[in-house]
Amino acid sequence: MSATTVSPSGTTGEPGPLARLRHLMDSPTATYYLLMSVTTLLVSIGLVMVLSASMIVSIHDNGGSPYTVFITQAIFAVLGIVAIAIAIRIPVSGWRRLGGTALIVTLLMQALVFTPLGTGTQGNRNWLDFKAFTVQPSEMGKLALVLFGAGVLAHKRHLMGSFKEALVPFVVPAAMAMLILVMWGHDLGTTMVIAAIVGGMLFAAGMPARWFTLAGVIGLVGVAGLTITSSNRLQRISIWLNPGQCVPANEELYFDTCRQPMHARYALADGGLTGIGLGASKEKWRWLSEPHNDFIFAIIGEELGLIGALAVLILFAVFAYCAYRLVMRSEDFFVRIASAGIMTWIAVQAMINIGAVIGLMPIIGVPLPFVSSGGSSLVTTMLAAGVLLSFARAEPGCKEQLAARPGGMRGSQAALARWRRGRARG
Fold first, then answer.
1. Where, by residue number, does the polypeptide cross the bilayer (predicted)?
2. E-state strands within 240-339
3. In what side-by-side order are the strands of the sheet with 124-129?
């Protein structure tokens, strides 16, 4: 029998939309289903936009086939689905145990980047080339660092007031080793994302706020050092601060460093409110570099307009909200810190990518999570979503209600009722 509400006049009726929404969000499976839905939508949008944005690049680079990049991305999406399916079934204790091993493996892989197996592009040496496919170890390193750090910080939760206990061994040597290896490969964007992950996890663990000021100063000095040692980065920042340099008379900049930020703005401007239509982008015709990768958000804005761009932003906000629910609702300190780390990772990386496209930040070069072309990024972020789904499944009442699904609606309602009775007794 459905719940009813009493109106001021004394009559009864069905609950209003807000009441129904609150009822749904109070369900133990709310985080699980919401997270599953938003991840599916982001990956689906990514596949559609990669197909649209990569066609011209595929034809130009692969002798006539417009589907090469898309097929590769679709294969990685399938691998990501397999990764999620496996991740959901791993208990929280299993993720806690995997952290140390995963970190050691990814650090060794990142070190291999500087051997003959390593390869680079546009000045960044951050990939391993196995001929049949390439792997970016730093993407896997983000998740490994989250799991290892969550395990360490959860173990030391009552010692976070001590500077030494807060930093060792999570920040020093683990995070520092990863950061040094990535910086050595000149990948500033990934370095910034990893640093943000570390900061977000320490904040969630309760590290005193005054220490973040010192860390911020050290981080700014490090970014400045990486910038002044690269003429390409200096030029990008110069253009960001003074876009007036991008004029046809300044031919060297106009057709080189200015090209990406200029054509990203052109794409967004052409899209207007509703876009020029899916597949109709002009900028992907070799005008905008990396239209299916770092600048895919510009193609979204061009083809789907402001409405499509805002829809993607809302989906990322919902993903962050799901992770935040796990941080606030879980009683397991490991789950709270790991969820905070994944939330920071996805949110900061999305902000850096989108900020560069719309001109709020200089061009740094990180993919848009779940959406941009790139196998390592897609599989790893989908695996991270699988970790969050595993955490959501471990919430009280969630596993029981999910298990009751084959029994139909009555089984689900009975499981929910049992969960509420147990919660009331507690």
1. 30-57, 69-88, 100-118, 138-154, 166-184, 190-206, 211-228, 295-321, 333-364, 370-392
2. none
3. 118-121, 124-129, 134-135
pLDDT digit string, tens, across residues 114-172 = 999 999 877 788 999 988 889 999 999 999 999 999 999 999 998 888 888 888 999 99
- Check if the beta carbon of residue 387 is closer than 8 Å to that of residue 87: yes
Which of helix, strand or coil describes residue 6? strand
DSSP state of 263: H
Burial 322-361, CB ≥16 within 10 A → b, else e: bbebbbebbebbbbbbbbbbbbbbbbbbbbbbbebbbeee
Claim: this prediction has a pTM higher than 0.85: yes
Q: Where are the beta strands (DSSP E) in 3-161?
A: 5-6, 12-13, 118-121, 124-129, 134-135
Q: Is 25 helix (H, G, I), strand (E, B) or coil?
A: helix
Place of tokens 């599953």: 36
Q: Which amino acid is at 12?
A: T
Q: What is the DSSP letter of 363?
A: -
* Torsion sign over Cα 151, 156, 161, 164: negative
Contact 84, 386 (CB under 8 A): yes
Place of tokens 């220490």: 211
Distance separating alpha carbons of residues 152 and 171, to the nearest angstrom: 10
Q: Token match 């000045």: residue?
A: 123
* Distance of alpha carbon 204 from alpha carbon 344, whole angstroms: 10
pLDDT tens track for 36-85: 999 999 999 999 999 999 999 898 886 778 999 999 999 999 999 999 99
- The DSSP letter of residue 14 is P
**Contact (Cβ atoms closer than 8 angstroms) between residue 123 and residue 363:** no
Residue 171 CA to its chain's centroid (Å): 21
- Do the Cβ atoms of 189 and 205 come closer than 8 Å? no
Which two structure tokens, joined as six digits, stand for 384? 């991270």
